[in-house]
């Protein structure tokens, strides 16, 4: 288990090495092409040191990589979303750049991965996933987690959460599949009215082509997900960049090994098979809300 930045450096380095090899260059030839020492290329490829978005762009130029989607993804892995302006071609700032001094680095890291992922698979055991929360629900969750923080801090965090949800509204939206333990529906976060609106929002959002919800009823008994929630980020075309995120109160841990990805992928498949179908889940949520 590693923290986000270390995972990102390793995955970025591995992909840059692959692109160099596809270009038929040695690390020495690559270094000469961009005017560096060979040791710098080696450190980047092994994940031993960080790299600026402008340097990634220089390497990709040297390797003849013109794929804009791939360049954007690799830019996100090196933190292009939080880079300073003027760092060269390919240094793209994400919307979260404006919050770089007010949000924890781990959260910024999570947001940048979320913004470039093509698919998200998640198990939630207590709360509605952030991408599906209403503002009032998000407000209540934030207050509960942070212990009555200043109102201005709450509102800023809610704005960030709402901005994150744009990944579900873009031209090629994030494909999201969520397994929700029935407990998620029982926790009256923010009170009955707030929860009723949140459940209605789940039904409405779940009607989208790119969002799939699966409720895991209490009647299913024990299941593999009782150990806790998790998120699996999958990226376009490059499976080796996939990562599992385990969220804790004060930090997030990232699992990147192939055996971990296989284990969590299999666990998610099992959970989804044990849960209600998407259609039955929407009916279950709507019925639950009507009976509340």
Automatic annotation (TrEMBL):
Q: What Gene3D superfamilies is this protein classified in? A: lambda repressor-like DNA-binding domains (1.10.260.40)
Domain named HTH cro/C1-type: residues: 16-71
Q: Which InterPro entries match?
A: Cro/C1-type_HTH, DUF5753, Lambda_DNA-bd_dom_sf
A UniProt-annotated Pfam family = DUF5753
Q: What is this protein called?
A: Transcriptional regulator
Q: What is the lineage of its organism?
A: Bacteria, Bacillati, Actinomycetota, Actinomycetes, Kitasatosporales
